Automatic annotation (TrEMBL):
<dbReference type="Pfam" id="PF00082">
    <property type="entry name" value="Peptidase_S8"/>
</dbReference>
<feature type="domain" description="Peptidase S8/S53">
    <location>
        <begin position="76"/>
        <end position="346"/>
    </location>
</feature>
<feature type="active site" description="Charge relay system">
    <location>
        <position position="123"/>
    </location>
</feature>
<keyword id="KW-0645">Protease</keyword>
<protein>
    <submittedName>
        <fullName>S8 family serine peptidase</fullName>
    </submittedName>
</protein>
<feature type="active site" description="Charge relay system">
    <location>
        <position position="85"/>
    </location>
</feature>
<comment type="similarity">
    <text>Belongs to the peptidase S8 family.</text>
</comment>
<feature type="active site" description="Charge relay system">
    <location>
        <position position="310"/>
    </location>
</feature>
<keyword id="KW-0720">Serine protease</keyword>
<keyword id="KW-0732">Signal</keyword>
<feature type="signal peptide">
    <location>
        <begin position="1"/>
        <end position="31"/>
    </location>
</feature>
<dbReference type="InterPro" id="IPR015500">
    <property type="entry name" value="Peptidase_S8_subtilisin-rel"/>
</dbReference>
<dbReference type="InterPro" id="IPR000209">
    <property type="entry name" value="Peptidase_S8/S53_dom"/>
</dbReference>
<dbReference type="InterPro" id="IPR036852">
    <property type="entry name" value="Peptidase_S8/S53_dom_sf"/>
</dbReference>
<keyword id="KW-0378">Hydrolase</keyword>
<dbReference type="InterPro" id="IPR050131">
    <property type="entry name" value="Peptidase_S8_subtilisin-like"/>
</dbReference>
Length: 506
């Protein structure tokens, strides 16, 4: 069988919340910061302040233990957090039994022996560490170290991913949320597209809204352009749209500001709240794309720093796991209401760009769950265009440069929204390992991973999709070394990262 190599076409789109790892122009960093070691839970300010996850949680009240609140004992134990990203590397902090459960690998690397489920890009491992990393021996701890992660890999080593893969991944999470041992209550999407259609009809928006209404708290990054828009699917009004705060290198929150790269949105749709998203230090995936391309972002031997709304979303996802451990009966709407009501306004408020303010875990843990939290936004229909949902982010054939466009998925199967929305709404978009008429994965669980399957790939242009850089960095990360990469953000990428090499990663 022919092996396909998928690549993301460079452009100006912004899948800003999941995989980005290569700045526009893929130029060198302007001012590489020296690698430094963390000193306990304190911030490090050597050529730029590093944000330790423990310090971030502490500043948000996640380490409080007194007569009225005890967030210090909350670990997220028993809560499953699904991570649709570039995979998770089995590094210390993420390699203990039961920490990571592999869902299906829907990436273009799923057909390459030895690469299934792994993180050749580096973005997913960084997010996983922030959310639930736990390495006592190495002194690293994520926001919810007791939570378990469901790894649903969709992006390849360069961040390449099509929106149809992300939608398929969300549908899988919905279908398997209650499987034994999973208990998926949170879905982290550090990813976004510059969709050119309203969230009311966008299929990606419909997918996350369906997950929300099935009891999953969807946390999505808003993007890293610093512009007056919110990327899809954070544009959906039901989900938790997260922007990034800049700690300005200190532990105190009195000098925190809205990060310059964080998308502000508009009066109609903007971040619901913000969380620390600049220079966060998390787990490194040695040998991954971002690790080799941006060595200045390494912190010691095991850690890596990055900035973006991707990281901010991961902080919120871990915090939601803490709340759900404390009160498992909370609905997604109640969780959102609690976080918004208890958020701390910035010293210099920005009611649009910073939403309700900064995440405050301790306050949310003490507030009585609101009974009237039900959201009543108009329901999305999902009947819009798959191509419009891609925005400017397209994978392309590596030999001819022909892009995957139109109303078809990566296998060339026609996109029929009328049929899909019914199946997605009923949690039946997947039948075994089949989605949208093609076999995407195996149909059984091996005990540690969802079984893989050989793809019967359609031949589009005689070879394969080989788009390396997408059109807009869909993964949201921002600058991995605490500084700004020349060129501004990624190389095109849909995951929301910012200074990685993909623009869509948040």
């Amino acid at each position: 069988m022919e092996t396909r190599r998928w690549v993301r076409r460079t452009g100006m789109g912004v899948m800003a919340a999941l995989l980005a790892t290569t700045p526009f122009g893929a130029g060198p960093a302007q001012a590489a910061e020296p690698a430094v070691e963390l000193a306990g839970n304190a911030w490090i300010d050597i050529g730029g302040g590093n944000a330790a996850i423990a310090a971030v949680r502490s500043a948000a009240g996640g380490k409080v233990k007194n007569g009225t609140v005890d967030t210090a004992s909350l670990t997220g134990a028993g809560i499953g957090v699904a991570l649709i990203d570039s995979g998770i590397a089995p590094v210390p902090g993420l390699n203990q039994p039961g920490k990571v459960i592999n869902g299906p690998d829907l990436s273009f690397e799923s057909q390459t022996p030895g690469l299934q489920y792994s993180d050749t890009y580096g973005h997913g491992t960084h997010m996983a560490g922030i959310i639930a990393g736990s390495d006592p021996a190495g002194g690293f701890e994520g926001v919810a170290p007791g939570a378990h992660l469901i790894n649903v890999k969709t992006a390849a080593y360069d961040g390449a991913v099509d929106v149809s893969q992300v939608i398929a991944a969300i549908d899988w999470v919905v279908a398997h949320r209650n499987d034994p041992g999973l208990n998926i209550r949170v879905l982290n999407l550090s990813f976004g597209t510059d969709s050119i259609q309203p969230s009311l009809i966008d299929p990606l928006s419909y997918a996350v809204e369906t997950a929300w209404k099935k009891g999953i708290v969807v946390v999505a990054s808003t993007g890293n352009d610093g512009t007056a828009r919110v990327t899809m699917p954070a544009a959906n009004p039901y989900v938790l749209a997260v922007g990034a705060a800049d700690s300005n290198g200190t532990e105190t929150r009195t000098d925190d500001t809205l990060a310059t790269f964080s998308n502000r949105g508009t009066v109609l749709r903007h971040p619901d709240l913000i969380a620390t998203g600049r220079s966060l230090v998390s787990l490194r995936a040695p040998g991954s794309y971002i690790d080799t391309q941006y060595p200045a972002a390494r912190v010691g031997d095991k850690l890596f720093r990055g900035s973006g709304t991707s990281q901010a979303a991961a902080v919120v996802s871990g915090s939601v796991a803490l709340l759900l451990q404390q009160r498992p009966g909370l609905t997604p709407d109640q969780v959102k209401q609690l976080l918004i009501r208890t958020a701390d306004p910035l010293a210099k408020p920005d009611p649009i760009g910073s939403g309700a303010g900064q995440l405050d875990i301790a306050e949310a843990a003490t507030l009585i769950a609101p009974l009237n939290a039900t959201q009543v936004w108009p329901a999305a229909t999902g009947l819009g265009s798959l191509e419009a949902s891609r925005g400017t982010s397209h994978v392309a054939d590596g030999a001819t440069g022909v892009e995957l466009t139109g109303e078809r998925d990566i296998f060339g199967m026609p996109w029929v929204p009328v049929t899909w929305v019914v199946n997605a709404r009923n949690g039946k978009a997947w039948t075994g390992g089949t989605w949208n008429g093609s076999v995407w994965s195996g149909s059984s669980y091996t005990g540690t991973s969802w079984a893989s399957s050989t793809w019967a790939l359609a031949t589009w242009t005689g070879r394969s999709w080989a788009g390396r850089s997408w059109a807009g960095d869909s993964w949201a990360g921002r600058s991995w070394n605490g500084g700004t990469w020349t060129g501004r953000s990624w190389n095109g990428g849909t995951w929301a990262g910012r200074s990685w090499a993909g623009r869509s990663w948040a």
